[in-house]
Q: What sequence folds into this?
């Protein structure tokens, strides 16, 4: 695997099933991202409410599936994965300059 987020993004493209039209590609990737996030959520539901023991490897595997769709969706819209990560951290620094704060969360405008 390549270096960092952008190396991952490049490597993830190798197994992308290219759709003929861009809109179908975006739909495939967006739905896939939501589906894999749903798999994470469903697994955690089983841990929290069904008494399953927490398997960190299972969580890691599903997070990898989320990452794959995320990397390819970012690529499809021409955004380096490193920019996604850096912009998110910058947004959170602006939103919570001293770490998470419930009051700031409740009074958020965005
Ligand atoms: Mg999965």
A:
């Amino acid at each position: 695997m390549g270096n960092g987020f952008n190396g991952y993004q490049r490597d993830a493209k190798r197994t992308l099933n290219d759709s003929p039209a861009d809109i179908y590609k975006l739909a495939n990737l967006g739905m896939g991202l939501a589906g894999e996030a749903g798999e994470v959520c469903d697994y955690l539901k089983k841990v929290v409410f069904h008494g399953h023991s927490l398997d960190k490897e299972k969580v890691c595997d599903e997070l990898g599936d989320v990452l794959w769709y995320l990397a390819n969706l970012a690529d499809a819209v021409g955004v380096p994965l490193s920019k996604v990560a850096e912009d998110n951290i910058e947004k959170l620094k602006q939103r919570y300059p001293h770490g998470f704060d419930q009051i700031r969360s409740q009074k958020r405008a965005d």
Summary: DSSP finds five helices and no strands in the chain. Helices lie at 4-12, 22-49, 56-76, 81-95, 102-106. The chain has a mean pLDDT of 93. Residues 36, 39, 62, 65 surround magnesium ion (CB under 6 Å).
